[in-house]
Design brief:
By secondary structure, the protein is α+β, with helices and mostly antiparallel strands. Helices cover 27% and strands 20% of the residues. Helix 17 (637-643) packs antiparallel against helix 18 (650-663), helix 18 (650-663) packs antiparallel against helix 19 (675-696) and helix 26 runs parallel beside helix 27 (976-990). The chain is globular, with a radius of gyration of 33 Å.
Length: 1506
């Protein structure tokens, strides 16, 4: 490697990185690894490759050394930018200066390997496994805290860090869990978060006693010294308090008894009940010296039994004995759970049982939450800090290769020496910025210098009254800075605290805790982000930097002069920041504000800080700074100059506001968009600050004297949520022996322990290559040239794959409904992000580097992005044009209506944001074209179909397999086949296995999302508000290909009525063709878009007639037996009852009155409340797709293997189907298993979608089991009621009865014909129905909102598994809430690229966004005489999604009051999502008018909503 400096080289820096991983020592030679590799890359590599001599066990470690068979794939890659938390691990270390023990949650996807030298890295595998789970893992599993499970290990680790730190803190509070942001850096797309929070809050308690006992200060009862057991906090976890106690140590030590039952050598840890005492048909050598021949096993070994099968079977079902040994009676059952109890005292978590024997069954029903027997938490059992690390010396490091070198100096002098010789060297602290630059943006940094192990850069000098300056080291992490400020605010005089409070206010919402734990103050300053949360604070408070260089020594840099351009500062290239000095000005009032799309863990839209000192009513000083208002953080000197010397009064405020308005003016086409919102926020923040100051002055004639106390409180504070609570009505009213019970997710325990295997977790196959896509950088263009020369010359690259590698030209064409797109672009690209080819290399890092080296020349063509542009240019997918018509000719019907209204509803798309991105692994067999295809897909048959096509073989040569998906939501129904097919072409060409998993930005750019839609409606109605006629022109942005757009619009058209009867209807649907990603299926599949339109015209009628909207909804509800516009009867209609029940249970009427009272008393905060229903049709729109198949196999030990055509993506399909099989066969659930889904097991499957998974596959499983049950019935009769299931099975097998059956199910009574306006067949099988009441509060100055309470009542029929259904309801609601509020997809106008490519810019709901009170209940005591579904259950995955729209309805209710206060009474436009920007701009107040930015000639917005 190259020389750095004589001085640094003279230190003989080592290249060995030494650390511990889950208790095992790692000595890693940095020169043998890719210098771009992150900690996540290393962790996940364990178990996939063997690192020679890399693992040695510490003498004091109780954990085994890492070997090539031990994988650590629980830590996931979710986004690569530290925004989703899937990669969270815990770093256990001593602080560099205080030497205190710390447990830091860290994003492994960003962490450089050099950063863990001398530290202990703990992953989810270090906590426990499925045989011995950590109490945290057990509680998340039992409390249904996971669905797809991909995000779960990261969430576990974030909570684990909280628990470890709570021991040192002495307590854990509900506020610690929910209000301090510890989970803000973690995202979950499935659960709705509530069960995760409840599981975490079960650990709330006082930990001080544990510390005293540990320190030997207090003796516990009994002999010796014991660690405290922290009790389960059932109340904090929203579980009922009762008399259930946790299992104590040695709970049944006095009750042990000798076990003499015959046991099978089966892993009882995995099968705690069913296989703990399985009887053998005959005695074994354990019981007798002359064991008889087993008629079952002997037949397989070709040995005839000595007795007849009947005699042996009879013997097998009765007690046996021998002279040499004694055996007890084998456990028997008639067809249900074995009657023999497990050993021990009978408690579910008995100390005599393996830990997994606590199988998740609740103790007794609870009206709040199921009551479980849970493991207690014993902090003393946690992983210790490896003793050898206390002796580890932090010494200089140097490693890398010719492309990139890593350096780790340990003193400031060493760092200055390096910087002097290499001014362009990149300094790395927390790596939160450079990690993204290298791995996502592809930037090169030949020399990277890790600075976080320099103790001098952590030094703190605290302020005093005499010297009120806080001085802290440049590398102080943000978390520590927050702690320092919090401590000082408790001790300093009140007049010196304001600046510290401003710092804390910004830090609370600064990224996630994983970032704050490692990101340094100086790093944040030096990156010079124009939207930095902290930089405005430093400027407004007069802070300064102390920098240093070899040439200058130490020198000062005032921060108000530091930023000079976009990402440019005055820091010399050869200098470093040594420390920051924050002056605390006595008597100065300082406030900082930030507004983002989402309150927690979000980058700012506008951030600001104001500092002002007023003496005797005159403004003595003023400093104002903003982020997000220019290309760098700015101050507003003109406004400050105007203020100084003037009296603090309303006249001064108004003059200053005008000056500020001119100083923060923005052009309409400003980069980043939102000009009016950003300017208005700046003015609103100034108003908030001015009001705050006025309330703090001794006396004032300013604005506060004109404001009410409630107004002052609303203006001067921000919306803060309370800890969440809520309940479920866990009554299980339709429970049978197995079906209908709340069983945990079948893979839940694997999710929480990190053992669940996803595509990219699968061990590497020999000679495997990794594929990286080369994507189009144009939205519409001709391809002139593709140059791969430089890419192919990169070391480690295998090959380039494109359309030339297909069997023929026809093989390149594919599609869902129409074959209208290509796998590889050939001569033209039609969307930004369209695949052109793939690079295959040895590793993902090399493949991605090579992909960036592929050079493509284009010739641009005209681009169409939006629905409006497509309509204007008549750009449609011409193969689709659908109508639904019923009743009188629509124009006549509208003309005959007493009243009519017209309107438009515009809805944005929605990114699926499944935590596991698209992934595929294809293994060629190199024989006859055979391939094994592992794909993260909802449609294995599609994967098989397209792989067969692109490789030129029949489908019978392709086996498509899938065990689970890390989320799907429709996004992996068709679009997954694109990547899978390309990987298959690569595998065929390279003659080796090829794997690919898209980065988050690639996934969003290429795979499509929910359809943006536009509806133009006209409604006819009576003077009383009764609907008479409806006409709708409905448009969806399909993107560049049709994909599933036709089906999506079909369903939208069928849901334009929602729950309301309309006699005369004429609706038409079209799909626009644009140069964007091909939009596709998403949860709800067009239904929510249609229902939004329905609620819009209902709201318009209520506004027009001045009626209560609830009355308008009620009067127009369907009645039992009435027909929909598509001529289908509405049967088993429970919406009226659901509305009545929800109204009563949510106390809706009283709260509605209270909302009106609140709005009269508050101007700057408004509340809204809404009560709305949903009617969601269940069935695929294509009748042929409404079929499912299954195969059920019974093995000789009585275990059952179930296979079907569905895929498991978190919705619990495998669990429900296993429950159905167990119920029908009369065996315990533990006896039934589903290994995977495969095209070789069940052929010609339909996608798992449309909430029809259990309807189709569950019924097929039922039919297969019914056949098996029929075959076994004679043997049940023959052997008697006490015969074991194993004996019955063995007897049947002995008579050559097949123990395998295939089941099939086709949904009856379907056959709707589109565009045939006469009655044909039913479009849907049934309707899943639900009602929600939601209340919100909004901040009219910022656009912030919070959901105060949500009550959901769902009709799910007779639930197969209420625990899973509750989770589906909560998760769907929160996902729908996100679609309607925070999730906004934006495209760049200048090149047609999607701009919202990850969690940094695209905001799905987080932990702090869910309703503060969240209640869910299921309809019970009802009848469904017309419901022909499996066990009278209903599909539930999609129907609750629309209920999330109630958030917007409530916001609109709140805005109605805000607008009326400002003299605006016309109805607000219907445009989704209702972001903070749209909420603020809808308020129509004077600040908005002052902040309005109007487009000048030729100006267009920076972003585009397609």
């Amino acid at each position: 490697m190259n020389s750095i400096t004589p001085a640094f080289d003279g230190l003989n820096p080592s290249s060995t990185i030494s650390f511990f991983l889950n208790g095992s020592k790692i000595n890693l030679d940095g020169n043998t690894i890719d210098p771009d590799a992150t900690l996540l890359d290393f962790i996940r590599s364990q178990g996939q490759v063997t690192l020679s001599s890399s693992a040695t066990q510490d003498n004091n470690s109780t954990h085994p050394p890492i070997t090539d068979t031990q994988g650590f794939t629980g830590t996931k890659l979710g986004c690569g930018e530290g925004g989703c938390g899937a990669c969270t691990i815990v770093v256990q270390s001593t602080h560099p200066t205080t030497k205190q023990m710390q447990h830091l949650a860290v994003n492994a996807c960003l962490a450089p390997l050099v950063g863990v030298d001398g530290k202990h890295v703990i992953t989810v595998e270090g906590l426990g496994n499925s045989e011995h789970p950590h109490p945290l893992q057990e509680r998340l599993w039992k409390m249904s805290g996971s669905q797809c499970g991909f995000c779960t290990p990261g969430i576990v680790m974030s909570i684990y860090a909280l628990l470890r730190n709570a021991v040192y803190k002495g307590q854990l509070t509900v506020a610690d869990v929910e209000l301090e942001g510890v989970l803000d850096g973690n995202l979950c797309r499935c659960t709705g978060y509530k069960p995760i929070l409840d599981a975490a809050k079960s650990f709330v308690g006082d930990y001080t006693k544990a510390l005293r006992i540990k320190a030997g200060q207090e003796k516990s009862e009994g002999e010796g010294e014991e660690e405290l057991v922290v009790p389960v906090n059932y109340k904090a976890a929203n579980m009922e308090e009762g008399d259930v106690e946790e299992c104590g140590k040695g709970c049944c030590s006095k009750k042990e008894k000798e076990e003499k039952d015959v046991e099978v050598s089966t892993d009882t840890n995995l099968f705690p009940v069913f296989f703990s005492k399985v009887s053998m048909p005959v005695p074994s050598a354990l019981e007798t010296s002359v064991p008889p021949i087993d008629p079952s096993a002997s037949a397989i070994s070709r040995t005839a039994p000595m007795t007849t099968p009947a005699v042996v079977s009879a013997a097998a079902s009765s007690p046996t004995s021998s002279s040499s040994s004694s055996t007890s009676t084998p456990p028997t059952s008639s067809s249900s759970l074995p009657s023999t109890p497990p050993k021990g005292c009978g408690r579910a978590d008995c100390c005599q049982l393996p830990s997994s024997a606590t199988d998740g069954k609740k103790q007794r029903p609870s009206p709040i939450f199921p009551r479980f027997t849970l493991k207690p938490y014993q902090p003393s059992t946690e992983l210790i800090y490896p003793p050898s690390l206390t002796k580890h010396v932090i010494a200089p490091l140097k490693f890398g290769n010719k492309n990139r070198q890593w350096l780790r100096p340990t003193t400031v002098a060493q760092l200055l020496d390096i910087k002097s010789a290499h001014p362009t060297a990149k300094l790395v602290g927390g790596s939160s910025e450079i990690g993204i630059e290298v791995h996502i943006l592809g930037r090169d940094y030949p020399i990277s210098v890790y600075v976080s192990d320099i103790p001098e850069l952590y030094e703190i000098k605290k302020p005093t009254v005499e010297d009120p300056v806080l001085s802290f080291g440049a590398n102080l992490p943000l978390t520590e800075l927050d702690g320092v400020c919090a401590e000082l605010m408790k001790t300093l005089p009140e007049g010196l605290r304001d600046a510290l409070g401003a710092v804390r206010n910004q830090l609370r919402y600064f990224a996630g805790v994983q970032i704050r734990n490692v990101a340094s103050v100086a790093g944040n300053i030096a990156t010079a982000s124009p939207i930095s949360d902290l930089n405005p604070v430093w400027i407004a408070t007069g802070a300064k930097l102390i920098a240093a260089s070899v040439e200058k020594g130490e020198f000062e840099l005032p921060l108000d002069e530091f930023f000079v351009g976009y990402r440019k500062t005055k820091l010399p290239a050869d200098a470093i920041i040594v420390r920051v000095e924050l002056p605390l000005h006595a008597g100065e009032i300082v406030r900082a504000y930030k507004q983002a799309k989402r309150r927690d863990d979000d980058i700012a839209i506008v951030t600001s800080c104001f500092a002002m000192k007023v003496e005797q009513g005159v403004i003595e000083s003023a400093r104002i700074a903003f982020g997000g208002m220019a290309a760098w953080t700015i101050s507003t000197p003109k406004t400050a100059e105007y203020l100084v010397g003037k009296p603090f009064n309303t006249t001064t405020y108004e003059g200053a506001l005008a000056v500020l308005s001119s100083e923060v003016d923005l052009p309409f086409n400003v980069p980043g968009g939102m000009p009016t919102y950003r300017k208005t926020l700046s003015l609103s923040f100034f108003y908030k600050f001015w009001t705050t100051v006025s309330t703090l002055l001794p006396s004032s004639s300013a604005a506060s004297s004109l404001l009410s106390p409630t107004d002052i409180a609303d203006i001067t504070t921000t919306i803060h949520r309370a800890p969440s609570s809520g309940r479920r009505d866990n009554s299980d009213p339709y429970a049978q022996e197995v079906v209908g019970k709340q069983e945990p997710h079948a893979s839940g325990l694997k999710h929480v322990t990190g053992e669940a295997v996803y595509i990219d977790d699968m061990p590497k196959v020999g000679n495997e290559g990794y594929g990286a896509l080369v994507l189009s950088k144009r939205a519409h263009a001709k391809i002139l040239k593709v140059d791969t020369k430089e890419a192919l010359e990169l070391e480690g690259v295998y090959n380039w794959v494109d359309h030339n590698d297909l069997p023929n030209q026809r093989a390149n064409y594919w599609g869902a409904a129409a074959i209208d797109e290509v796998f590889f672009a050939v001569d033209e690209v039609v969307a930004y992000g369209q695949p052109i080819g793939m690079i295959v290399a040895t590793t993902k890092i090399i493949a991605q580097k090579a992909a960036r080296l592929v050079k493509i020349e284009y010739e641009d063509l005209p681009v169409i992005l939006t629905i409006e542009e497509a309509i204007e240019q008549n750009s449609f997918h011409e193969m689709y044009d659908r109508r639904i018509e019923r009743g009188d000719e629509i124009e006549m019907a509208l003309a005959a209506s007493e009243l009519t209204l017209e309107g438009e509803a515009r809805m944005g798309g929605q990114e699926h944001f499944y935590l596991e991105t698209m992934a595929a692994l294809v293994v060629p067999k190199l024989e006859g074209g055979e391939m094994e295809v592992f794909s993260s897909t909802q449609a294995l048959t599609d994967a098989q179909r397209w792989v067969a096509q692109v490789t030129g073989v029949p489908r019978n040569r392709i086996v498509a397999r899938g065990k689970r998906l890390g989320g799907g939501f429709g996004g992996k129904e068709t679009r997954s086949s694109h990547l899978t097919a390309i990987v298959a072409v690569a595998a065929k060409k390279c003659r080796r296995p090829v794997r690919a998993m898209l980065d988050r930005s690639e996934d969003i750019a290429t795979t499509g999302q929910r359809h943006p839609c536009l509806a133009k409606w006209k409604i006819g109605f009576t003077k009383e508000g009764v609907l008479t006629s409806l006409k709708v022109a409905f448009f969806a942005n399909g993107g560049h290909s049709l994909d599933l757009s036709a089906g999506v619009v079909d369903r939208a058209l069928a849901h334009l009525d929602n729950s309301y009867y309309i006699p005369n209807v004429a609706v038409r649907g079209r799909v626009t063709k644009t140069n964007t990603v091909s939009n596709t299926a998403y949860r709800g599949f067009g239904g929510p878009q249609g229902m939004v339109v329905a609620e819009h015209y209902i709201e318009a009628i209520a506004e027009k007639l001045k009626l209560d909207i609830d009355d308008v909804r009620t009067m127009n509800l369907y009645k039992e037996g009435e027909k929909t516009p598509y001529h289908q009867q509405v049967l088993d209609w429970h919406v009226p009852r659901l509305l009545k029940d929800c109204r009563a249970e949510s106390d809706y009427d009283r709260r509605k009155i209270e909302v009106e009272r609140f709005n009269k008393e508050h101007k700057w905060r408004k509340r809204g409340i809404a009560l709305v229903s949903t009617k969601f049709g269940l069935a695929f729109g294509v009748s042929a797709m409404n079929q499912g198949s299954a195969s059920v196999l019974i093995y000789m030990d009585g275990s059952v293997l179930v296979a079907h055509g569905g895929t498991e993506m978190g919705q619990g399909l495998y669990t429900k189907c296993c429950q159905i099989a167990a119920q029908e066969l009369g065996v315990p659930l533990e006896a039934v298993f589903t290994s995977e889904s495969s095209s070789a097991t069940v052929a010609n499957t339909v996608p798992t979608a449309g909430s029809a998974g259990s309807d189709l596959n569950g019924y097929a499983v039922f039919n297969a089991c019914a056949e098996l049950k029929k075959r076994l019935e004679p043997y049940r009769t023959k052997l008697g009621p006490d015969a074991t299931f194993q004996s019955i099975v063995a007897a049947a097998w002995g008579d050559r009865i097949s123990l395998q059956a295939v089941g099939h199910h086709a949904t009856p009574n379907l056959g709707y014909e589109w565009n045939n306006q006469k009655p044909t067949g039913n479009l849907f099988h049934y309707f899943t129905q639900g009602v929600v009441a939601t209340e919100v509060e909004i901040d009219t100055l910022t656009g912030d909102h919070t959901v105060l309470r949500t009550d959901i009542k769902m009709d799910v029929g007779k639930s197969l598994n209420p625990a899973i259904d509750y989770g589906q309801i909560e998760g769907a609601y929160v996902q729908g809430q996100g679609w309607c509020t925070t999730e906004e997809s934006l495209w760049l106008r200048h090149n047609g690229a999607i701009a919202t490519l990850g969690p940094g810019s695209y905001k799905i709901p987080g932990f702090s966004d869910i309703p503060q009170i969240f209640n869910v209940s299921l309809l019970r005591d009802a009848e469904w005489p017309n419901l022909g579904s499996i066990k009278a259950s209903k599909g539930i995955g999609e129907p609750p999604f629309f209920l999330g729209y109630s958030t917007v309805l409530a916001i609109r209710h709140a805005l109605k009051s805000a607008r009326a206060d400002n003299g605006v009474h016309e109805m607000l436009e219907c445009r989704l999502p209702m972001t903070s920007e749209r909420i603020r701009l809808a308020c129509a107040d004077s600040l908005l008018k002052e902040g309005s930015v109007v487009a000048k000639a030729g100006q267009q917005s920076f972003f585009v909503n397609i």
